[in-house]
């Protein structure tokens, strides 16, 4: 067992959120030169999509979390160039290279408040920095990455540059709007320009509209000098620059909330705007006609038209507090061509806020940093056959395909206002899906949701909440709602947990201690009808209905609930508050069996073998049900939402626990650590650290999946399993040779130019390296080969390996 | 040609196919690229009403001349998908043929009156116009045109049912070839040998090969069926004629030109025996397009009509239609290392092409959009609808006991007799029993919905009383589900529930296992009943308010009377009409006025709030900035609001 700990590896399988550039001035996505590919920047990954098939055909792992702008390299269309505050990074997105990061240059001097890079030429990049309402235009030399300030402007409230980079529009602190022609500055630099001269020449082109634009929220300027200013009241002001006769202007009114983003179409016939309403508004500037694209997935934060793909609009939709969905819409039919969405877990508290409050307290009172006060975790469920991760977030359930690293779909589980909320509508509470479970065969999903009564009028039922338990059937590629049960445990009793036994049944436990078992049967309505009307027997309804089969009376306690079935399904352990009881799963009688009481509410229960794992707010205790005593594994943990941070692999008898701790070095942050433990000892089998806090961990047959607070998904998987009957103690030589073989295989896979080579290497090693005999689920493997047109061989290979693991 | 297809023609380079299609009452011009991956051109242009296509010809590679029955010639550009030019005909007779001549680089048109026009292809101007009748005594309708070089001068071949060789410059007939009985539909000069040309006529099985120099038929190619289109391909010594027959098969004639006529005989004899001496030749091969045997579902699959054919030096291009609208193409080499590729009957099997566009929308729903919640086809029940399987096992619905069956049989008889009795009764129009039982038996929700929409008490009562008792249970269940789904519909269902219980209560209570069957109804009604305490609470509050208002009124009345005492000369206006109206109850009396006052007070408060909101809104408007408020504050406020959402 000497190298036991080496047998687990941690790997990240998704790239995290799309990078949010400062002020959302640009989209973290660029189109390839031919417009056929979209390169989307996630915080730790570049993903290349083939637009026609919506397929991700390549991924490049590179840390871009600090990037402020990304452009296609003007020198080589196979490269993208990303800018951070002190670095310029060149990444090759097309070819499979040993190191996709082709070059990294240090910006000298670094631009501290770099906001955006708005124009790229073959020799020079042009950037804008903003500090204390002063903007500066910088030129960055491509060869040396030296930055020079070209032009500065003080007292700027908002600014925008045109698509060709020749126009700069600003709104000044006094409310004046100004338009500058900066084409003199943003030209290929031959010599160091004279600042005063340049400034004077730019000032000479300025046009000013007197001040009434103090409420500016966003702006855009077209190549021909038309300025659009979005205000917090929702009015868009259009100012027409370059006109000799007066200063023509007009207003566009539709939005009632602040306009978040404005963009001119490539031909400058349309202005596109968006805001909280979740509606993309197309203003035809000549015909005075508006078109709307409603029901987008979230408030619109950024709209852009890529110069390489002028017939598509790309928008960034805010789907959660920190993450965006990148949506590419064809301008022709307004149907989406691509959508890139990150994992959307429902965090108890956004980690940023938790860290912020902790830091403040730490600075003021020297707070104890050993525990996390906020619940930063998020629940996650794994579908048993498709292995999709399911996140219930608000009214919707997101299914995330880990193998492909993409969102599979989003299913609304509760009726909800699908348009955006504005003004008073924000008071309307959203329904929320709070529990989610799958049957063992993956054909059924049960969700529980709470829908608060709309508080429009001050009625007596304003505090009423209607609950519904819903059963969904998997049909081809989507969930169909089969049955809705209103108030499953009686009026205003909330279900705290849904657990499923191996067979077809769901057990719901409410917060008052009532337990109900639901089992499917053929639709009794239909069957009654047929038995009554013997003639209409052919109209047999095959709809399945889940009906209540058992119920146990509720007690009066109201408390957090946790439950689990024992691994042999003979016991149902239910925790209410700090007390655990064991029930008979058939008759739901409580069995007289003494279990240790906790001092704080129990968050989760797990069963593995003969052990029951009790996770309370303070403690993690393993109880041996046979021996009737606690085992050696008992630990003090203190983290709200710890129930989401424990996962059990009952097959290997392992328990994974994630722990988040504050660290002050190098900066104040929350860091995560995952421990794999055996049921009997406190010494971890494997432990790994993660740079971010862990939000949830769950068990899948391929390993433990975890989601961190940056919405990245990682997996802790067993390493290639060796034949255990072989020599347990490897000597140094054999270890080295093994490492060599491994390295060689990796190198072969990496460098193999042709697919055949890599396949041969793999198959040659298959006999001795990949010895593990594993059943592979077809349901997981099949979707990988669906629609693979345009996918490069190595990314396909990658996916297969990930699925097989 | 079959179905909606009027004409089909490959362009000279064999990269595009032009089609003339009848679409309802208009004619359309369609241009499709042969190889989709190289060229995405696929255009469709509808002519205006009344414009009927009679001829189609490619002018150079990029434009299409479209001859119409009204004498117009349109020049269509597929790249722009628009008519770029219009050649105004001199006469309004239908255009019978268009011919683009490589020799003169002009377009020739012929019309039904026998006129020829020559058009410049750059300026689309009329170059010359003359008529066949000028040169010929008899009038013959020109059906086909071609150009050849004869004696180093360009000549026009004019096909009527004969063929005339016309000198373009002198406008005179040089030679006449008596050819067919029917009008000629194909007239193809041989490119390698300007002495020869081929003709085919309408409804004729023979293809004639003429020699201009000899002024006689050189060979006759005999097809199995009448020919509709021919194509000629040459490569070195090899030559090939393919003909599309009227059924749409291809017939292939190998080397129709090179082989010499049979042994020479004396001139006289040959002239006498012209018909017998001319070499006639039957098809060497026939090509048929078909689906693979496992895909043949109907006769159309077995045999696909070839619409157009074209031969290059090495390749035979053919086209046929999938689904009657999509042109499919095939290119087959017709010779292989000096030998012909086809012999005998060739069946080329082509499976139907799957048309699989990348789906950006699924069932009309954008695939990137979240799947919205839909409970239309969902069963909705109440949580407390308890079905205990200890009492009632799952299977008992399917497996009936013998006793139950017997009971049912006898019951069925009873029902029959009951029905018989009913028939004797007079049917009143005021029942929906038949419709209702049909809806319940067939599980027809929309039908049931129409029945339930009825609210007339008499109709409801009659309908229920005539309904079978067994169906009443089903109806109760349906009603329960509807009430659970939409609580506000209880008012409507109320009637029905009441009458079912009144009419069928006795039968229902005698049914076994009723509690299980009506569990959902029980749950719904229980839930309804639980609202009683709240209603009582509400009633209490209302009572209290009523009493308060009464008290208030009392006090006010008291003060009013005092006031009356204080100043005696108050202006009391007496309007007789109002007083009368109050007495008649048309206008509310005084205590109601009090209520209105209270409401008004409430409204006033709300109005105030609204005003505040409006003020806040106004602050956000840029126009109002000057009115005192600091802008920074406004911005801060706005920012706060913005972050909170």
Automatic annotation (TrEMBL), chain A:
WD repeats lie at residues 252-286. The keyword Nucleus applies. Keywords: Nucleus, Repeat, Ribosome biogenesis, rRNA processing, Transcription, WD repeat. One of its GO terms (molecular function) is RNA binding. It is found in: Nucleus, Nucleolus. This is NET1-associated nuclear protein 1. One of its GO terms (biological process) is positive regulation of transcription by RNA polymerase I. PROSITE patterns: WD_REPEATS_2. GO terms for cellular component: small-subunit processome. Pfam families: WD40. Its main location: nucleus.
TrEMBL record, chain B:
Residues 584-645 are annotated as: Disordered. This is Small-subunit processome Utp12 domain-containing protein. Residues 589-616 have a biased composition (Acidic residues). Keywords: Nucleus. Pfam families: Utp12 (PF04003). The keyword Nucleus applies. Residues 443-546 form the Small-subunit processome Utp12 domain. PANTHER family: WD REPEAT-CONTAINING PROTEIN 43. SMART domains: WD40. Its main location: nucleus. Belongs to the UTP5 family. One of its GO terms (biological process) is maturation of SSU-rRNA from tricistronic rRNA transcript (SSU-rRNA, 5.8S rRNA, LSU-rRNA). Gene3D superfamilies: YVTN repeat-like/Quinoprotein amine dehydrogenase. One of its GO terms (cellular component) is small-subunit processome. It is found in: Nucleus. The lineage of its organism: Eukaryota, Fungi, Dikarya, Ascomycota, Saccharomycotina.
